[in-house]
Structures are given as structure tokens and as C-alpha cells.
């Protein structure tokens, strides 16, 4: 049993991971927070108040920690970079063995402006880790969460749902070019499962830690939606326009996320959809298979199984 520190532990994805780790009962969880809540969901976790702006505060919090998992989600990219660098420096100083930055989605080749902070943190980790001698780290990259295509229906306890560019509820979709771009789909439950298994993995963590429950093209996903739900209204946009920052579609999903201010929801939803679809066309959501290879017996839920079961009998 080791101690695992969770940064951003009150977030919706982090809470799914925490519950899964606790259910296995192999490790002790320490949740880092700027403020300790008056009440918590689970008495099996320890909450520690930290100042993410202070390397000294983080170093004290990491003094007996084996692994740090960061789920910080802050709209300001410069703030994200600064706070995560503080965590990395503190983890090295405190002797932390393993570290995972705030990834949990797109690949290293995503080239999405909204995720620019990830590129900087990846460079910084490579620079300071000295080929993993100072800090073993992994970029957990599951692709796109399958759960989103079940909106508004959820099968997860904490995960925050949001509509997407393939809208199963309203039977509509936005197709990029001819839709022959592969995307990796993984349920948030399987993300939590893989992270939990990774904590017990005896080998060295891969630096890039891609995995997926299914690999499917955008066109195939839309056909799956039509197989399950009936005909979709499909609008086609071009990757060339997306690279120019233009989304020429009559609609786009309203993206709901705790990190998005309500007064900027419409503006950011269009921007995020543009970047996400551009990422699809450039391979940014097609994960590698490092954890699939290292966990060959892990029972991933396929997109077809998940979505068929979820939408069965729904209006």
C-alpha cells in the first residue's frame, strides 16, 4: 500500500478515479485542496490544505507521498502551467516516485490551442526528469470519453456530462471532411480502472500512456448512432476551415464543464468544438496503446456495447 496524492480532487473525473482506487482498497488517498470542505463523501480519504502557488507548501504535502495525480482544471493556461510546474518541482524535492500531470484526454500530437499548457508541461517534465531518473511520470491519454455520447444520460456517479459534435439525443452530427479520421473512445469508468491498475503496475510507467476501449472513425461513430437511434442530420465541415479557426456549421454543442464561466459558455463552446473537430482531423484524439499492451486482461467497455446498452429504450 502506498500513499497517492490527488490534486484537483474535488473535480468530476478525479472523484471517479478516487472511488475506483478506494474500491480496490490497495492504497491510501490524500486529496489536496486550497480549502478543506466542511463535509466529504468518503471518510477513507485524508484532505490536506495546500497553496498551489507555494512550492514549499506542496513539498510539505508530498513528504510521504509515492504517487501524485493531477486533475487540476483552470481556464487560465498560464496559471495551469505555473501551478503544475510547482507541483513537479515539489514532487522531485520531496522524493515522489511517480507523477501524472493533468492530461486525461488528447494525445501528444493534438496541437489544440486550448491545450497549449499541456505541451509546455510535457516539455518541462522531459527537461527535469532526466530520462525518468528523477521522476517517473506518465501522460495518461484515453482519447475522448465515450460517456459524452450518452448525454443527457449518465452511468457515472460524478462525471459531468456535456453535449458533443455527435449528438445522439437530437440525432445530429458534424462530420469533418469524409469522416475517415480515427478517434479513441474510452469510458470514464475505464479511465478510472486503468489508473487504478497502473498504481499497482510493477514495471516502469510509460512516458506516453495511451489507451482506449474502442478505435473508430468519425464516420463509423455516426453510423453507429444511426444504427442505434435512427437517421441523423449530418453537416459536413472542412478541416481546412477548422485549421483557420472557422466552424461553418448551423449549430454546435453547448459544452458544460465546471471550469467554463457561465457568461462565456457560448463563446467557449464554439471555440472548443472547433478545436476538438480540428483535433479529430489531425489525429489528436487517436490514442496510442501503451496501457492496452501492459494490461492485456483489462476488460474495456467498447463504444458499441456502452452506447447500445445506454440508449436502449430511450425516446
UniProtKB/TrEMBL annotation:
Q: Which UniProt keywords apply?
A: NADP, Oxidoreductase
* Pfam families assigned: NmrA
Q: Which family does it belong to?
A: Belongs to the NmrA-type oxidoreductase family. Isoflavone reductase subfamily.
Q: Which GO terms describe its molecular function?
A: oxidoreductase activity
- Domain annotation NmrA-like: ranges: 3-206
- What name does UniProt use for this protein? NmrA-like domain-containing protein
Q: Which organism is it from?
A: Penicillium alfredii
